[in-house]
């Protein structure tokens, strides 16, 4: 089709160019040349009329047509020569007309003009008039031949133009017919070689899409269609392989789900036993401890004067151990109940939770002369009010407990939107205490892990583990900022609530609680 288009374009352009050349030659040269020949003849007639009038009237004004005719003749001859310069026959006619005109002027017109005396009209004798007529008849005969040749040239050009237009119409019609035939042939070829293989490929693909994954897709026709069929067959084989793998995985997941259901039943049973253990630990185990502590104190009161210093020390050890056991049991119960007993999800004002924690720590804060800086407004979150108050209480209590011996505790609380965790508040509790070495930054959040002896700092080692469990229960995370070296900075995140975006707290607006 491309070859046909190129050939048709070249042939059509050539035909159009030839037609345009003939048209231009006819309209720009031959027809204007015919017109100039008429003007040339008119100029010669003016000359003959002027000479004859001047010879009769002997008045110089009658000679004006002769002079004007000569100028017009020269102008028309120059134009005509330019128009027919490429046609020797027409150029020969022009030269003959000019030569005969010159002969007429030299032998008749010029001598007659010279013989006329102005102001003395006369008549031309018969011999002179006959001689002038014969000379001008030669001019007329020559321009008649010129006119005939020009008429013939115009006729030839018109015939040539008509023939060229006929040839152009026939050739262009043949090209159109050839294009249509070629299009029809290509349509049939495409139908046979491309469309049918594609239809077969489509039918095979639809069979596979309907679930006949074992149907093998074969292709025919051109290489491109065969390549597409091969690619589709590779895809079918991959789908079959993936389907087999997914079925195997589904069977495995089904078995695992069944195992998980069994484990869930076992876990619920285990949780029920833990609930029973928690009840026993909170009631049955604490009662003997209270009795041990009470009777040890009674022994000390009744027989204290009979015991030596070592005996009193033993009794004190027993009482202290019983009390520590009670505290440890209570802390373990608190740790195990996080997110399991109440499971509350309520709108909580962090300001209120912080106020409650500070109220519980009022004595410790006052005795340590601690200074607590807090934002003017803390946001609202969704969670458990009691657990969030416990979180504040443990973090601020730790800051007060592990204060530096050379300075009073200075605790600063900040809140801002987290840049690393979009959709979360980033809260910080910073103190100027003894700090936590970097190598123990993760260890402090493990239950019962202590960095100091009980003699140096009291406690059970559950506080920070409880804080981690509370924060993770609320969908956040907690860590120690390694960039803060003058004390300790605990940082933790809490998710934003729907209305939390209405108020973003500013750390610069703070109020101090001393």
Description:
There is one protein chain. This protein is an alpha+beta fold and 514 residues long. The chain folds into 3 domains: 2-182, Up-down Bundle (Four Helix Bundle (Hemerythrin (Met), subunit A)), CATH 1.20.120; 285-333; 343-513, Heat Shock Protein 90. The chain has 11 helices and 8 strands. It has helices at 2-57, 64-83, 88-115, 126-209, 223-283, 286-303, 309-337, 350-360, 362-368, 385-401, 463-473; strands spanning 346-349, 371-375, 380-383, 410-417, 424-431, 478-480, 488-495, 510-513. The strands form 2 sheets. A 6-stranded mixed β-sheet has the order 6-7-5-4-2-8. 24% of the residues are buried.
The radius of gyration over CA amounts to 62 Å
Low-confidence stretches: 500-514
**Number of structural units classed as domains:** 3
User: What's the CATH first level of the largest domain?
Assistant: Mainly Alpha
Oligomer: single chain
Structural class: alpha+beta
Q: Please give the share of residues in helix.
A: 55-70%
The total count of helices amounts to 11
The proportion of residues in beta strands is 5-15%
Distance between the termini: 95 Å
Mean pLDDT: 80
How would you write the strand order of the largest sheet?
6-7-5-4-2-8
List the helices and strands in order: HHHHHHHEHHEEHEEHEEE
CATH architecture of the largest domain: Up-down Bundle
For the largest beta-sheet, the strand count, sense and barrel status come to: 6 strands, mixed
What brief labels describe this structure?
two-stranded antiparallel ribbon; single chain; 11 helices; Heat Shock Protein 90; six-stranded mixed β-sheet; 514 residues; Four Helix Bundle (Hemerythrin (Met), subunit A)
């Amino acid at each position: 089709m491309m070859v046909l288009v190129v050939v048709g374009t070249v042939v059509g352009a050539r035909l159009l160019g030839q037609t345009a050349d003939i048209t231009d030659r006819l309209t720009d040269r031959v027809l204007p040349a015919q017109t100039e020949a008429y003007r040339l003849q008119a100029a010669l007639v003016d000359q003959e009329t002027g000479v004859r009038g001047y010879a009769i009237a002997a008045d110089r004004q009658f000679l004006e047509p002769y002079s004007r005719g000569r100028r017009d003749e020269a102008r028309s001859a120059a134009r005509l020569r330019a128009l027919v310069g490429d046609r020797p026959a027409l150029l020969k006619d022009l030269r003959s007309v000019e030569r005969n005109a010159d002969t007429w002027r030299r032998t008749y017109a010029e001598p007659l003009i010279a013989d006329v005396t102005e102001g003395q009209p006369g008549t031309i004798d018969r011999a002179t008039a006959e001689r002038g007529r014969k000379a001008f008849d030669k001019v007329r005969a020559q321009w008649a031949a010129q006119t005939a040749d020009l008429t013939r040239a115009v006729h030839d050009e018109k015939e040539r133009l008509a023939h060229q237009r006929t040839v152009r119409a026939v050739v262009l019609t043949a090209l159109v017919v050839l294009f249509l035939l070629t299009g029809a042939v290509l349509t049939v070829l495409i139908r046979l070689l491309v469309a049918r293989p594609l239809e077969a490929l489509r039918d095979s693909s639809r069979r596979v899409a309907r679930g006949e994954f074992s149907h093998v897709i074969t292709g025919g026709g051109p290489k491109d269609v065969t390549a597409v069929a091969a690619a589709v067959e590779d895809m079918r084989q991959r789908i079959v392989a993936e389907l087999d793998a997914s079925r195997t995985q589904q069977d495995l997941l089904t078995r695992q789900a069944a195992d998980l259901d069994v484990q869930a039943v076992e876990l619920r049973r285990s949780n029920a036993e833990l609930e029973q253990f928690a009840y026993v630990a909170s009631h049955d185990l604490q009662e003997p401890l209270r009795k041990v502590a009470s009777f040890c104190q009674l022994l000390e009161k009744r027989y204290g004067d009979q015991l030596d210093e070592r005996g009193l020390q033993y009794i004190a050890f027993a009482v202290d151990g019983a009390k520590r056991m009670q505290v440890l049991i209570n802390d373990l119960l608190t740790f195990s109940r996080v997110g399991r007993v109440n499971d509350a999800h309520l709108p909580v004002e962090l300001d209120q939770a912080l106020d409650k924690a500070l109220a519980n720590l009022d004595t410790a804060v006052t005795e340590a002369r601690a200074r607590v800086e807090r934002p003017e407004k803390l946001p609202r979150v969704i969670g458990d009010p009691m657990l969030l108050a416990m979180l504040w209480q443990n973090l601020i209590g730790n800051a007060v407990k592990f204060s530096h011996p050379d300075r009073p505790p200075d605790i600063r609380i900040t809140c801002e939107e987290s840049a690393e965790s979009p959709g979360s508040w980033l809260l910080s509790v910073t103190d100027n205490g003894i700090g936590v070495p970097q190598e123990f930054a993760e260890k402090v959040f493990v239950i019962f892990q202590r960095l100091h002896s009980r003699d140096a700092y009291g406690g059970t080692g559950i506080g920070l583990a409880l804080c981690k469990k509370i924060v993770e229960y609320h969908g956040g995370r907690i860590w120690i900022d390694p960039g803060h070296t003058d004390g300790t900075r605990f940082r933790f995140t809490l998710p934003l609530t729907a209305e939390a975006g209405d108020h973003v707290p500013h750390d610069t607006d703070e109020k101090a609680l001393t």
